[in-house]
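Contributing new complexes? Match this layout with flavin-adenine dinucleotide.
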Amino acid sequence: MDLSLISATPWDYILVGGGLCASVVSHRLLEFDSKLKILVVEAGPNANDRPDIVWPNSTNLIGGDFDWKYKTVKQSNLDNRSIDLPSGKALGGGTVINSGAWIRGDKFDYDLWGLTVNDSRWSYDGLLPFMRKSESFWSEVINRDQHGHCGPLPIQSVTSTNREFPLRDRVLRAWAELGIEALPGFDGNAGNPLGVGDLQENKNGGRREIAAAVYPLKGVTVLTDTLVEKVLIEKMPHGTGLSAVGIKLAGGVEVRGRQTILSAGAIRSPQVLMLSGIGPAEELAKFDIPVLLDQPGVGRNLSDHGILYHAWKVKDPSAGWALGSGNPLFNKPQYGYGTPGDFIVSTDVSKNGLIAAIAEDEGATPDPATHPLLANKRTFTEHMLIYAAAPDGSLITSVLITLLPTSRGSVKLSSADIRDAPLIDPNYLGSAVDRYVAREGLKLQVKYLGSDATVIGREILDGEAGAPGFDEVLSVNSTDEYIDARLRAAMGSTYHPMGTLAMGAVADADLKVKGVENLRVVDTSVFPVPITGHLQVAAFAMAEQAAQIIYASRA
Ligand SMILES: Cc1cc2nc3c(=O)[nH]c(=O)nc-3n(C[C@H](O)[C@H](O)[C@H](O)COP(=O)(O)OP(=O)(O)OC[C@H]3O[C@@H](n4cnc5c(N)ncnc54)[C@H](O)[C@@H]3O)c2cc1C
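Output block (do not edit by hand):
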């Protein structure tokens, strides 16, 4: 369809961005009513048939053709480094370049979301039917009430793909030696991830599942390689408020529709909204953008999960523990189906140190019986061993992810031009709690990998490989100062920005932008609290529920 025809069509729904959430919402809306006129406008191309993004070892992912290649502003708690923040730029959004880890997170976070917005649809039990609707879980037996078996997204696990990594039993034994036990059915995707679970991925025999392909957009009009500049917002007659009437493309063309849905992701949706005149008045004033609605919450509340990779030396590389070691096992095709690791391990932190860190952040000693970080077990950190790091199999990689940041950052405008990336400040390690949690998480990994307390430390590994700029290596004798320095020097992003148009603050529980009629947000911007998973599960489920809410409220 050419632009003049698109511009002349009165659309029922216009979606800004064609990423993960937009694919689900537009597919489902059309499934509910095939007569609906739905337009999706995506800045990137259609990459569904690109062979160079399909497999885990594909070469065109991060830093490639379908990555916005964002960089954060300098992070004061990370040695003033600017951090790479890749983001999908193609139909399907993040699902075109992401790693496909399928990690739901903790029931507690979803329940907090529901409580925050006083609406049980966003609690764990409220979202569970939609988590189940999106997936085809690999096992019919494990946690049956927690999983779906008919959804568009086949889920694989290391077990279902017959990947028996040689260290599997020892890794498991080592975690048990530290008191961290296997989860029932090795399933971390059943609401309580605290423990050891199999790595699960939304891959089908290793093949990437692009949202726009597994939720086909046949019947939806899709405009690719097209940037949306802003939402057209008009004052309603007789001063009764504001209403979205469509969008303006970066080339100037205007397109009208009854409902506009912002799905440009947690970095770009707040930018588009600010360029449309909705946002903190002082931010808009900096770029002479007329303020239609002073909404201080737009672009605030950004959070992301931090990540640290560190490599450990294998005592005997010829034993064949790691990829590159020459072990013929790794030549079997299934070992190319996903990330080469067995388990996702999620842990809480010691509450004693946490109390002190909270007191430092909040200026008063918290009540352990009522404080949300103390009163319950929480999922603070994630640990994973990847059996690869050196071409000769002499190293393995340990991954630490901080899942529950208390610091918040922001997305602000860098100009009034949609072509310019906004200023992204995730504020990594910006709180004493976050620094404590990261330090404790790394200490746990050092005990696990580099001490006599575990079979891995005793028999398999021979110390940490070190890091550029440091003479010392990580060990059980490392001081807190050294550990903190390592974190500051190398922590990066897990690529999970969320919260910048938070439900409760900017959007209501029906995903409507407060103060503007006919405008909704459906993407990870609306997560009001950090989800301690890898966002895809939560994003697919949210979008499934959003489609239902949007359809139910049609005029
Ligand atoms: C490299 C990488 C690895 C990841 N790994 C994992 C993982 O292993 N597991 C996991 O669960 N999650 C992972 N994620 C996160 C996950 O993919 C995202 O959380 C998810 O895609 C967010 O969905 P969304 O719909 O909010 O936004 P997106 O999927 O990012 O979609 C937003 C879309 O809007 C488009 N857009 C933006 N601005 C405009 C505009 N002005 N006009 C038109 N279009 C616009 C973008 O191009 C994009 O296609 C990863 C992400 C990345 C980038």
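Reviewers usually confirm one structural detail per submission. For this one: The pocket of flavin-adenine dinucleotide is lined by residues 16-21, 41-44, 62, 86-90, 93-95, 97-101, 227-228, 263-265, 268, 272, 418, 495-496, 523-524, 534-536, 539 (CB under 6 Å).
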